[in-house]
Amino acid sequence: MVGAGDDSFTIISVDDHVIEPPDVWEGRMPARFAARAPRVARLRDIAPGDTRVPAKMQEHIVQADERGTDYWVFEDVLIPMSGLGAVAGRDRAEYSSDPVNFEEMRPGCYDPAARIADMDLDGVLGSVAFPSFPRFCGQLFSCDTKDKDLALACIEAYNDWMIEAWAGYAPGRLVSLCLIPLWDPQLAVAEMHRAAGKGARAIAFSENPAWLGLPSIHDRNGYWDPVFSAAEDLGLPLCMHIGSASRSIVTADDAPRSISVALAPFSCQFTLMDWLLSDVLLKHPRLQIVLSEGGIGWIPYVLDRADYSWEHQGPWTKTPHKEPPSHLFREHFYGCFIWDPHGVRAIDDIGVDNVMMESDYPHSDSTWPHTLSAAREALKGFADEDVHKITRGNAERVFRFQPSAVGSR
Asked: Is the pLDDT of residue 163 over 80?
């Protein structure tokens, strides 16, 4: 039972986030793109009338205070760093989406050495970190960047930084999660092979590419088949974070923001149903999918509903499955939770081999610095073997990750 093996009760968080430091793209871009690479600038250092600045920001530039505000400057836009993305160490009453500067962040947000120290405080052994500035599956480059040669160079540079400078700082503690050029499957496959050769352990993929204006996973021409085949062959799980389709779930235009924030994890339910009733997993039987930050308490109902719909509606909807779609879940999917008491009680129905844990550092949903104590509380009464699987064993297997001891680099 929990408590019997406290020395080994450590966690691999499969959903954290990194605030990219200003030098990610410095020295990693081809010479012809160096001047156009993403960079960080202070608002006070950007002249009023700069064509890269949206009109609504011009007033802020004119009134810029002495401190200034940090912005990513890329192509024709300025992108601030949201305070909600870097709240570690702050009191909840201080949470805000207002722009935040690097000196106002806890260093663990962007520095790998400081991140390791914060993981040690939290009892977290390993960490998978999603991007921030490029967004969760690199939508900034794949969907918003007009010059695709520039976009590809940015993705390659990001992956080099992620593998070499971030995860490479502490290979036994930090797991490399890489981006792919979603606009071109062949380029994506090439980048998957290149990144895997350098040590990539997972790929960030969209929870719903169709919402990004890309072909859906159901595309009749098999748009994504080369990507899915490469993921199978290379052993790279596809990590689909909520929000990676760049669309929020809202009930009304005038609904308070608390509604969309609370509903954010519900997009995972759409994703799971989308995949279960498609033919993708019938064609790609070794594909592994990680549903990041969606919780797990809803999974049994979605599996039941998928099976019921298949049984009652399958013939006329021409669903291709020969057996209940829920059978695909345990072979392909991993639900991830931060704090989900109901979901923990349902783990027998979900499958103990299909559940992993998250800290969500340094976001506002995070359990840091109490992730270990929260896990101990959540998993009371579970057998040691099952605790090991949920807290770290499943993650070690899915990400092919060999962790080092807590406190060591």
From this structure: yes
